[in-house]
Amino acid sequence: MGGVPGTAGNAPGGIKRAGAAVLIALLVVPMLSGWKVTGTKVREAYYPVSGRNHTEIVRSVRRFAPMSGRAYGLGIIDFHPDYDMRSKDGACRITRANTGLSITLKLPEWKGPKDAPRAAARLGRHFERVIKRHELQHVKIAERYARKMSSDLKKLKPEKNCWAMRRKAYTLIKSVKKQHINAQRAFDRRTLKQIRRLL
Protein backbone atom coordinates (compact mmCIF):
# COMPACT_ATOMS: atom_id res chain seq x y z
CA MET A 1 0.00 0.00 0.00
CA GLY A 2 2.24 2.67 -1.29
CA GLY A 3 5.09 1.24 0.75
CA VAL A 4 3.29 1.68 4.06
CA PRO A 5 3.01 -1.70 5.80
CA GLY A 6 -0.38 -3.02 6.77
CA THR A 7 -0.73 -5.22 9.82
CA ALA A 8 -2.31 -8.61 9.69
CA GLY A 9 -2.25 -12.07 11.09
CA ASN A 10 -3.18 -13.99 14.16
CA ALA A 11 -4.35 -11.54 16.81
CA PRO A 12 -2.96 -10.29 19.10
CA GLY A 13 0.44 -10.71 17.46
CA GLY A 14 0.04 -10.21 13.77
CA ILE A 15 1.98 -10.24 10.57
CA LYS A 16 3.15 -7.08 8.88
CA ARG A 17 2.84 -6.70 5.19
CA ALA A 18 2.16 -4.03 2.63
CA GLY A 19 -0.97 -3.93 0.56
CA ALA A 20 -4.09 -5.71 1.67
CA ALA A 21 -4.27 -7.08 5.17
CA VAL A 22 -5.60 -10.44 6.29
CA LEU A 23 -6.58 -11.09 9.87
CA ILE A 24 -6.65 -14.81 10.55
CA ALA A 25 -8.58 -15.65 13.67
CA LEU A 26 -7.57 -18.96 15.19
CA LEU A 27 -11.08 -19.94 16.09
CA VAL A 28 -11.71 -23.51 17.15
CA VAL A 29 -15.43 -24.11 17.47
CA PRO A 30 -16.06 -26.47 20.38
CA MET A 31 -17.87 -29.67 19.54
CA LEU A 32 -21.51 -29.75 20.56
CA SER A 33 -21.58 -25.97 20.51
CA GLY A 34 -25.02 -26.01 18.91
CA TRP A 35 -24.06 -24.16 15.72
CA LYS A 36 -21.99 -24.87 12.65
CA VAL A 37 -20.53 -23.00 9.72
CA THR A 38 -20.31 -25.12 6.60
CA GLY A 39 -18.74 -24.22 3.29
CA THR A 40 -17.34 -20.75 2.72
CA LYS A 41 -19.37 -17.72 3.67
CA VAL A 42 -17.95 -14.43 2.38
CA ARG A 43 -19.28 -11.02 3.32
CA GLU A 44 -18.02 -7.97 1.43
CA ALA A 45 -18.00 -4.44 2.82
CA TYR A 46 -16.70 -1.43 0.94
CA TYR A 47 -14.97 1.86 1.58
CA PRO A 48 -15.24 4.73 -0.93
CA VAL A 49 -12.41 5.79 -3.21
CA SER A 50 -12.83 9.16 -4.88
CA GLY A 51 -10.90 12.05 -6.35
CA ARG A 52 -10.19 14.03 -9.49
CA ASN A 53 -6.48 13.28 -9.61
CA HIS A 54 -3.84 10.99 -8.13
CA THR A 55 -3.28 13.13 -5.04
CA GLU A 56 -6.98 13.24 -4.17
CA ILE A 57 -7.37 9.50 -4.69
CA VAL A 58 -4.45 8.77 -2.37
CA ARG A 59 -5.94 11.13 0.21
CA SER A 60 -9.28 9.33 -0.08
CA VAL A 61 -7.68 5.93 0.47
CA ARG A 62 -5.74 7.15 3.48
CA ARG A 63 -8.93 8.52 4.97
CA PHE A 64 -11.30 5.60 4.39
CA ALA A 65 -9.20 2.45 3.96
CA PRO A 66 -9.00 -0.14 6.76
CA MET A 67 -6.69 0.25 9.73
CA SER A 68 -6.71 4.04 9.51
CA GLY A 69 -5.61 3.94 5.89
CA ARG A 70 -2.69 1.58 6.50
CA ALA A 71 -4.16 -1.26 4.43
CA TYR A 72 -5.72 -1.15 0.98
CA GLY A 73 -7.95 -4.14 1.73
CA LEU A 74 -8.70 -6.30 4.72
CA GLY A 75 -9.77 -9.90 5.17
CA ILE A 76 -10.93 -11.44 8.43
CA ILE A 77 -10.83 -15.22 8.12
CA ASP A 78 -12.37 -17.57 10.70
CA PHE A 79 -11.94 -21.33 10.52
CA HIS A 80 -14.76 -23.49 11.90
CA PRO A 81 -13.59 -27.11 12.19
CA ASP A 82 -16.31 -29.60 13.10
CA TYR A 83 -15.89 -33.34 13.53
CA ASP A 84 -17.50 -36.45 15.02
CA MET A 85 -15.72 -39.10 17.07
CA ARG A 86 -16.71 -42.69 17.75
CA SER A 87 -15.38 -45.09 20.35
CA LYS A 88 -15.45 -48.76 19.39
CA ASP A 89 -13.46 -51.85 20.32
CA GLY A 90 -11.25 -49.92 22.72
CA ALA A 91 -10.30 -47.18 20.26
CA CYS A 92 -11.63 -43.74 19.39
CA ARG A 93 -11.49 -42.42 15.86
CA ILE A 94 -12.79 -39.45 13.88
CA THR A 95 -15.63 -40.56 11.63
CA ARG A 96 -16.49 -37.25 9.97
CA ALA A 97 -14.76 -33.89 9.58
CA ASN A 98 -15.74 -30.68 7.88
CA THR A 99 -14.20 -27.22 8.10
CA GLY A 100 -16.27 -24.16 7.33
CA LEU A 101 -14.99 -20.65 6.72
CA SER A 102 -16.54 -17.31 7.51
CA ILE A 103 -14.73 -14.43 5.83
CA THR A 104 -15.29 -10.70 5.88
CA LEU A 105 -13.58 -8.60 3.22
CA LYS A 106 -13.17 -4.84 3.33
CA LEU A 107 -12.62 -3.65 -0.23
CA PRO A 108 -12.26 -0.35 -2.10
CA GLU A 109 -15.06 0.86 -4.37
CA TRP A 110 -14.63 3.65 -6.88
CA LYS A 111 -17.09 6.44 -6.04
CA GLY A 112 -15.50 9.29 -7.96
CA PRO A 113 -17.56 12.15 -9.42
CA LYS A 114 -19.26 11.47 -12.73
CA ASP A 115 -17.23 14.20 -14.38
CA ALA A 116 -13.90 12.98 -12.97
CA PRO A 117 -11.07 13.10 -15.51
CA ARG A 118 -10.71 9.87 -17.43
CA ALA A 119 -7.24 9.19 -16.00
CA ALA A 120 -8.52 9.53 -12.43
CA ALA A 121 -11.49 7.23 -13.05
CA ARG A 122 -9.24 4.69 -14.73
CA LEU A 123 -6.83 4.73 -11.77
CA GLY A 124 -9.65 4.39 -9.24
CA ARG A 125 -11.30 1.47 -11.03
CA HIS A 126 -7.97 -0.28 -11.58
CA PHE A 127 -7.16 0.07 -7.88
CA GLU A 128 -10.57 -1.39 -7.01
CA ARG A 129 -10.13 -4.39 -9.33
CA VAL A 130 -6.60 -5.27 -8.27
CA ILE A 131 -7.33 -5.14 -4.54
CA LYS A 132 -10.47 -7.25 -4.90
CA ARG A 133 -8.57 -9.81 -6.96
CA HIS A 134 -5.83 -9.84 -4.32
CA GLU A 135 -8.28 -10.43 -1.48
CA LEU A 136 -10.14 -13.16 -3.37
CA GLN A 137 -6.84 -14.96 -3.76
CA HIS A 138 -6.54 -14.91 0.03
CA VAL A 139 -9.98 -16.55 0.14
CA LYS A 140 -8.77 -19.31 -2.20
CA ILE A 141 -5.75 -19.93 0.01
CA ALA A 142 -8.00 -20.20 3.06
CA GLU A 143 -10.29 -22.65 1.24
CA ARG A 144 -7.32 -24.83 0.36
CA TYR A 145 -6.30 -25.06 4.01
CA ALA A 146 -9.87 -25.66 5.16
CA ARG A 147 -9.96 -28.70 2.86
CA LYS A 148 -6.58 -29.82 4.15
CA MET A 149 -7.76 -29.48 7.75
CA SER A 150 -10.80 -31.69 7.11
CA SER A 151 -8.76 -34.26 5.20
CA ASP A 152 -6.01 -34.43 7.82
CA LEU A 153 -8.52 -34.78 10.66
CA LYS A 154 -10.09 -37.80 8.96
CA LYS A 155 -6.65 -39.38 8.51
CA LEU A 156 -5.71 -39.23 12.20
CA LYS A 157 -4.91 -42.64 13.67
CA PRO A 158 -7.24 -43.90 16.40
CA GLU A 159 -6.48 -43.22 20.06
CA LYS A 160 -7.30 -45.32 23.11
CA ASN A 161 -9.98 -42.86 24.21
CA CYS A 162 -11.80 -39.83 22.83
CA TRP A 163 -10.12 -37.37 25.19
CA ALA A 164 -6.78 -38.28 23.65
CA MET A 165 -8.33 -38.11 20.19
CA ARG A 166 -9.66 -34.64 20.89
CA ARG A 167 -6.22 -33.45 22.03
CA LYS A 168 -4.65 -34.85 18.88
CA ALA A 169 -7.28 -33.13 16.72
CA TYR A 170 -6.71 -29.82 18.51
CA THR A 171 -2.95 -30.06 17.90
CA LEU A 172 -3.53 -30.81 14.22
CA ILE A 173 -5.92 -27.88 13.84
CA LYS A 174 -3.36 -25.50 15.35
CA SER A 175 -0.68 -26.85 13.02
CA VAL A 176 -2.78 -26.43 9.86
CA LYS A 177 -3.72 -22.89 10.88
CA LYS A 178 -0.05 -22.04 11.32
CA GLN A 179 0.65 -23.43 7.84
CA HIS A 180 -2.22 -21.31 6.53
CA ILE A 181 -0.78 -18.13 8.02
CA ASN A 182 2.60 -18.92 6.48
CA ALA A 183 0.98 -19.45 3.07
CA GLN A 184 -0.83 -16.10 3.32
CA ARG A 185 2.41 -14.36 4.24
CA ALA A 186 4.21 -15.98 1.32
CA PHE A 187 1.51 -14.79 -1.09
CA ASP A 188 1.83 -11.24 0.23
CA ARG A 189 5.59 -11.30 -0.16
CA ARG A 190 5.20 -12.37 -3.80
CA THR A 191 2.70 -9.60 -4.57
CA LEU A 192 4.19 -6.81 -2.45
CA LYS A 193 5.79 -4.90 -5.32
CA GLN A 194 2.63 -5.02 -7.42
CA ILE A 195 0.52 -3.66 -4.55
CA ARG A 196 2.98 -0.88 -3.78
CA ARG A 197 2.90 0.30 -7.38
CA LEU A 198 -0.87 0.84 -7.37
CA LEU A 199 -0.83 4.37 -5.94
Low-confidence stretches: 1-20, 24-35
Number of helices: 4
Largest sheet: 4 strands, mixed
**How many angstroms does the end-to-end distance come to?**
7 Å
Strand arrangement within the widest β-sheet reads: 3-5-6-4
Radius of gyration: 20 Å
* Tally of strands: 6
Helix amount: 40-55%
* Gross morphology: elongated
Number of domain units: 1
Beta content = 25-35%
Could you tell me the mean pLDDT? Answer: 85
Tell me the structural class.
alpha/beta
* Helix and strand run: EEEEHHEEHH
Explain what the structure shows:
With 199 residues, the protein is α/β, with parallel strands linked by helices. The protein has one domain (5-187). The chain has four helices and six strands; from the N terminus they run ββββααββαα. A four-stranded mixed β-sheet has the order 3-5-6-4. A two-stranded antiparallel ribbon has the order 1-2. Mean pLDDT is 85; it is low at 1-20 and 24-35.
SSE blueprint and pairings:
Elements: E1 5-8, E2 15-18, E3 21-25, E4 40-49, H1 54-64, H2 66-69, E5 74-88, E6 91-110, H3 118-154, H4 162-196
Parallel strand pairs: 3-5, 4-6
Antiparallel strand pairs: 1-2, 5-6
Helix pairs in contact: 3-4
